[in-house]
Design brief:
By secondary structure, this protein is mainly beta. The chain contains 1 helix and 11 strands. The strands form 2 sheets. Strands 2, 4, 5, 6, 9, 10 and 11 form a 7-stranded mixed beta sheet that branches. It has a 4-stranded antiparallel beta sheet with strand order 1-3-8-7, with no helix packed on it. It is globular.
Length: 122
């Protein structure tokens, strides 16, 4: 499975961005999918996860209420809608595929995508 993240860029505080993660090589419809981020000088952290059916989601406390994860299995794509962005959201964002909801939250990942940079300016 190859995961290609896109949609990053420069945005002002309070703005919005929508990240996409397109999968190729194999369907990810049976994988739970997640987003992670890594800010400069910090460890990679969990952001959000969605179950293979899309019926369950979970978020890090730092993004809850501002970010929304979704997926379109017909398009083999996962999305991260980010609203009310703040400078602390500045990071490289990575998508990932895992075998279960809990495994993703534990960073136990089967496939990583390359990152896309999000920069929030104040």
């Amino acid at each position: 499975v190859q995961l290609q993240a896109s949609g990053g860029g420069l945005v002002q505080v309070g703005g919005s961005l929508r990240l996409s993660c397109a999968a190729s090589g194999r369907t990810v419809s049976r994988y739970d999918m997640g987003w992670f981020r890594q800010a400069p000088g910090k460890e990679r952290e969990f952001v959000a996860v969605i179950s293979w059916s899309g019926g369950s989601t979970s978020y890090a406390d730092s993004v809850k209420g501002r970010f929304t994860i979704s997926r379109n299995n017909a398009k083999n794509t996962v999305y991260l809608q980010m609203n009310s962005l703040i400078p602390e959201d500045t990071a490289v964002y990575y998508c990932a595929a895992g075998s279960s909801f809990i495994s993703i939250a534990r960073h136990e990942i089967d496939y990583w995508g390359q990152g896309t940079l999000v920069t929030v300016s104040s």
